[in-house]
Design goal:
The protein has helices at about 15-20, 35-40, 90-100, 130-155, and strands spanning about 5-10, 20-30, 45, 50-55, 55-60, 65, 80-85, 105-115, 115-125. With about 160 residues, the chain is of the alpha+beta class. A seven-stranded antiparallel β-sheet has the order 1-8-9-2-7-5-4. A two-stranded antiparallel ribbon has the order 3-6. The longest helix is centred in the C-terminal third of the chain and has 26 residues, at about 130-155. GO terms for molecular function: RNA binding.
Length: about 160
Amino acid sequence: MPKGEGKVIAQNKKAYHDYFIEETYEAGIVLQGTEIKSIRAGKVNLKDSYARIHNGEVFLIGMHISPYEQGNRYNHDPLRDRKLLLHKREILKLYGDTREAGYSLVPLKLYLKNGFCKVLLGLAKGKKNYDKREALKQKEAKREIERAFRERQKM
């Protein structure tokens, strides 16, 4: 299965609006306790989360996984930092890339693939306001063209 495919649980659509995505990486995620049950139930929020490299390991910071309802004392801290599983050479490459000005690691998708929870990480460069406006104009123009094409097909 290609990376980024599987049963999508959560997407970070705002990341595509706020950043230019240069490359994507598929990473496993270390979960504890009842977190996977909450993820399967769709109780995840990727908004305002990011990844950081610390001591040769990649951590996902700010991802909110709601506590599982039937989890009682086995529940977890919803906003704890979670370790991501990547190959050493990928981590070293990402470390070098994020040292460049303006690059950051942003989670784009959280999905289940072959029974495992995966995160699609994007190496992202921030957009300026005028870039965002230009992207919205292009999106609107594309929508208008498709609408006109559909109308013409009906005739």
